[in-house]
Design a protein that fits this description.
Elements: H1 2-32, E1 45-48, H2 53-58, H3 65-72, E2 77-78, E3 85-94, E4 97-109, E5 112-118, H4 124-130, H5 147-152, H6 163-166
Antiparallel strand pairs: 1-3, 2-3, 3-4, 4-5
């Protein structure tokens, strides 16, 4: 009877020590770990056709729908109920970069472009610049060299290179075969 009682007390003591250790561990993490320490991975989501400001400026009222399709590509949204309207929408969401959304709508009268409505569209170079995440730049070293530093790299000042290595040698008259001899 005493053996089962001591075993029960030791199991309870072990469980209590384990509980106290886990609580003490949680208390020490609250100061060093913030909410932003463990972020889930967010995949890049790209939807639609990107239409640049240069493409928008190439459109003119009176163009045929085939010409518009050649400049902008296939519209993202075409509707049976609005056959005279093509919608181009683009959105991109990347982690660490603000989401970007752009829309352009082309209205047709028959097969001819009549009107264009759009958001303020970035140029291709502006859009490419927006895709880059801002990076913190550390302290840059000075980009100046003294006259002594420059003399180290001029060919006349280097005496440690043998003359045979600096001048290209004669090429060999024959080369080893590429394949082993046939048996």
């Amino acid at each position: 009877m005493t053996a089962s009682l001591t075993f029960r007390l030791s199991v309870q003591g072990l469980a209590a020590c384990l509980l106290l250790a886990s609580l003490a561990g949680c208390g020490s993490l609250s100061g060093s770990v913030s909410r932003d320490t463990f972020k889930p991975f967010v995949p890049e989501v790209v939807q639609g056709n990107f239409v640049s400001n240069e493409q928008r400026q190439a459109l003119r009222p009176g163009m045929a729908s085939a010409q518009v399709r050649e400049i902008l590509g296939t519209p993202l949204i075409t509707s049976l109920f609005h056959a005279n309207r093509w919608d181009y929408a683009f959105s991109i969401q990347r982690q660490g970069v603000p989401a970007q959304n752009f829309k352009l709508t082309a209205y047709f009268k028959g097969d001819v472009l009549e009107q264009i409505e759009s958001d303020v569209l970035p140029s291709e170079s502006e859009f490419a610049g927006r895709l880059v995440r801002p990076q913190a730049v550390g302290k840059l070293p000075p980009l100046q060299a003294s006259e002594e530093d420059l003399k180290k790299f001029t060919p006349a000042a280097r005496t440690d290179v043998p003359a045979a290595a600096s001048a290209p040698g004669a090429l060999p008259r024959s080369y080893p075969p590429l394949e082993p001899p046939a048996r």
